[in-house]
Specification:
Low-confidence stretches: none
Strand content: 25-35%
CATH architecture: 4-Layer Sandwich
Distance between the termini: 5 Å
Number of domains: 1
Oligomer: single chain
Number of helices: 4
CATH superfamily: Ribonuclease Z/Hydroxyacylglutathione hydrolase-like
Radius of gyration: 16 Å
Number of strands: 14
Amino acid sequence: MHLTKYEHACLTLEKDGQLLVIDPGGFSSDFIAPANVVAVVITHDHGDHLDHDQLAGIIDKNPDALIIGDQAVTSTIEAFATRTVQSGDRLTIGEFDLEFFGGQHAVVYTVAPTTTNLGVMVNDLFYYPGDSFTLPGKPVDVLALPIAAPWLKADEVREFMLAIKPRLAFPTHDALLSDIGKSLPDRQLPQFGRPQGIDYMRLTGPLDI
């Protein structure tokens, strides 16, 4: 598969000319809707992961693309084709085998209700937890690792990466950080990962996985 990361939490996976888009949100200003999209996975209904203008742009170019998410996501989408999933579900869309995990967004404020969230595994290789530290309970080759959010601490990022122990981890969910801020986890996390055989790197272009 061919992996491309965009600003913040948006990324695409391409296989045999088909594309899967994950979390095209409002913070991903560098994302331009591509052609050949077969599906869009939305991990949860926050605006930095689900942006209706971004979705409209994708569907305009790919009218048969399916939007996949939990009930909180699909209930907000009326104009496009959707598929509602929950934790434990598996489905195949084109070249992509998808499996979903978790169910709850990490807590931001204990005094406020939290939303739902689904992590997604793609082709038993790539795992993205959305806004959570949900463990998939199975091997992960490449991990999209959230590094900056109101709901996380640095040590939780480290523990999550080491618990999953992927071959490769790359940072995501990082639009809240300046370039200086991004340099901090990029210096620290390789020191924790390397002794465990984990290669942590910031993606600066497309990657084959």
